[in-house]
Every structure is written in C-alpha cells, then in structure tokens.
C-alpha cells in the first residue's frame, strides 16, 4: 500500500501527526521529532493554540514547505463573527507560511447559513491561502447540503473514527463523492492498547495494538489518520504501519468492535450525529 492517498493532484500522507494538547516546547519537540522520523503531514487548529510552535518546528526542520501537508481548522467563533478570512491570515502568520494545504471548518455553526460559511472557505481558497478545503464533525445531512447548495469542492470530513465508533454513513458518503475521511482520535485516546481482539492480531504481526488500529483505518482505502503522540516512541510506532497487511477477516473482527457507547468527543455544540445503520443515500 502506498504511504500517500492521491486526490486532486495532491499526494497526502495517510498518517499525520495530531497536535491537540501539544503546546509550548512539547509541541515544538514532537513536531520536530515527527519530521525527523519521516512525517510529512501535520494537523492543527486555531483553537489548539499551537500554530506558532508548529510553524517554528517546520521552519527549523529545513524541510521544504512544499514537502509538508499542513492542515488547520477555523474555530467556530471566527466563522460566527464573520472573521474567518482574517483569522486564517493570523494562522498563516503563526505557521510562518503563505498557505496551508487543507483548511477545515472545525464544527458546524448553526447561526450562519451553511452556504455562507462554505463561501467564506472558498474565498480563502480563491485567494490562495489554502490548496484544499473541507469540514470537520459534519453529519452526512450537512455534507449533502453543501453539495446541494454550493459548488465547493470539499475533499474531506474529519471525524472521530476508531474501532469502537462506526462511521459507516460518513464512509459511504465520502466514497460516493470521491472524498476521504480523516480519522481523529484514531487510537480512541489510547483505549485500543488493551483490547484483547486487537492485541491478538497485533501478536501475529509483531506489532502494537496502536499500529494494528492505524493499519485497520488506512487499509480501508479512503481513510487517513492523525494520531497524536508526544512520546517519541509512540510517534515512531505510529508511522511504522506500511510493512504488514491485515486479512479481510481481521478487518471484519476489528470493525465488529464498534458499539453505541464508543463516541468520545461529544461537546454540547455537537450536531445530531449519524446513526451507524443510517442509509447515507437517504440524507
Ligand atoms: N476535528 C476535531 O474536532 C478533533 C477532535 C479531536 C482530535 N482531533 C485531532 O485528532 C488528533 C488525534 O486525536 P486525539 O489526540 O484526541 O487522540 P488519539 O490520537 O486517539 O490518542 C492520543 C493518545 O494516545 C497515545 N498514543 C499515541 N500513540 C500511541 C502508541 N503508539 N501507543 C500507545 N499510546 C499511544 C498518546 O500518548 P502520548 O501523547 O503520551 O504519546 C495520547 O495519550 C488530535 O491531536 C487532533 O489533531 C480533531
């Protein structure tokens, strides 16, 4: 399997470094370590308050900016107040770059018509401040609304996805519309480490439970994963997943671990989430 997913003339590394709760020197160190170990995809967001550290680590790495796939997300307050463009200018300044590769709306905002939020993203894209645009935490009904009401070329929906949470409706939707799913909390914040089913499979390949989980995600084809790690051993582990392949049966065994209580991230501003058995065609 290739280490990148190719879409719209762009090669995106299937594994990126998640950076939520990485701040200050810990953030700079983790990003520097990741870049040294071969990562070329970094995920951040305005609300993580670490764009400056990430910009610094990238600048100090000496790796050409053109080799790094960088994502940031516009925080909801900046969308709601109409300050999306200005906020992205500030993000770019902190990130020490004139563009990101992917810009996402972090969460649906209910107070502004969806087509206006997407229009703001498109304007930022037209100005060259991002190559690609997408959304995060969008149920399929809202994704369908984007397709119905705008001509925006959304490439991804970044959602929580790991063995304990089915995202079948989003998976069906992105496949149908030639997009990809970006899996956040791909390790279910570490819960997979002690899972007996995953550990058994891991033993067979001489891999860790985290590695098997990440392999399960990316082996689905149009799924990328952005595990967060501060521990250098974890950072290294999470990218060593291209030298083994799960069988169809193992893929099914891990898929069967999904359960209704599997969701971790569910703040009060969450949208109505998709039900796992919902038919995405009906949305
Ligand atoms: N769009 C959104 O709304 C949204 C929401 C949540 C997260 N995200 C993004 O997704 C990223 C990942 O999600 P997350 O940080 O919530 O959870 P996660 O990546 O599932 O889990 C991170 C935890 O797993 C541990 N870990 C990492 N690699 C490991 C390994 N190989 N073996 C054992 N433990 C390991 C980390 O420990 P150490 O740090 O000690 O290494 C950390 O405690 C975030 O950082 C952020 O970029 C986006």
**Low-confidence runs (pLDDT<50, min 5 residues)?**
none
CATH topology: TIM Barrel
What structural category characterises the helix and strand content?
alpha/beta
Question: What's the number of domains?
Answer: 1
Radius of gyration over alpha carbons? 18 Å
Bound molecules: NADP nicotinamide-adenine-dinucleotide phosphate
Oligomerization state: single chain
What is the helix tally?
11
Encode the helix/strand succession as letters: EEEHEHEHHEHEHEHEHHEHH
Task: Give the averaged pLDDT, no decimals.
Answer: 96
Helicity, in percent?
25-40%
Relative strand content:
15-25%
Distance between the terminal alpha carbons, to the nearest Å? Answer: 32 Å
CATH-level-2 architecture: Alpha-Beta Barrel
Tell me the name of the CATH homologous superfamily: NADP-dependent oxidoreductase domain
The number of E-state strands comes to: 10
Taken from the alpha-carbon principal axes, the silhouette is globular
| Lateral strand order in the biggest sheet | 3-4-5-6-7-8-9-10
Per CATH, the class reads: Alpha Beta
Note the main sheet. 8 strands, parallel
